[in-house]
Amino acid sequence: MLPRLSCLLLSLVAFHATAQEAPTREHFATPGHEAAYHDWHYTPVVKVGDMVIVSGIPAAGPGTYEEKVRRMFVALGKQLAQAGATYADVVELTTFHTGPTDPQSFQVEFARFAPIHHEFFPANYPAWSAVGTNALLAPDAVVEMRAVAMIGSGRAPKADIPKPKPRPATP
């Protein structure tokens, strides 16, 4: 009887501890973007425990390609801050590009995009997937970006990745 009672008590304690440790899910929208949640039924920023997921942010509006992309990165910073994260905490980016139609045009676009990306991620870069697409929801958007961050992960990052040897020039 005592072993069964002990097992039952241990099971109840384990269940109670697990139930208490379940992370809370919080939803955020920066001022002016509340309609995303109420009208479009998606959350611009979701925080689950220390993980922050930022929905797609379009590089749209007036200005040059570079101005649109820079505004998109600034908007990312505001959304991260709302959930308690920073650029340094970003562990993954996904970007969707409307301009490139082949690998060569992707390289041309990256020559414009990468310096702006580097302004916001100067070291300890997040994982990044770039996808070509022919349409985005926001009118005149040239890129859309989503991000995943882990709060606190940027405090002491480690990147022991050696620099590659220079490639020989091709004639």
Characterization of this structure:
This protein is α+β, with helices and mostly antiparallel strands. It contains four helices and six strands, in the order H-E-H-E-E-H-E-H-E-E. Strands 1-2-3-6-4-5 form a six-stranded mixed beta sheet, covered by helices on one side. The mean pLDDT is 90.
Mean of pLDDT: 90
Distance between the termini: 84 Å
User: How would you characterize the largest beta sheet?
Assistant: 6 strands, mixed
Shape: globular
User: How many helices in DSSP terms?
Assistant: 4
The share of residues in helices is: 25-40%
| Unreliable residue stretches | none
Helix/sheet category: alpha+beta
Q: Which strand order spans the largest sheet, edge to edge or round the barrel?
A: 1-2-3-6-4-5
Helix and strand succession?
A: HEHEEHEHEE
CA-based gyration radius = 22 Å
> In percent terms, what proportion of residues is strand?
15-25%
* Number of E-state strands: 6
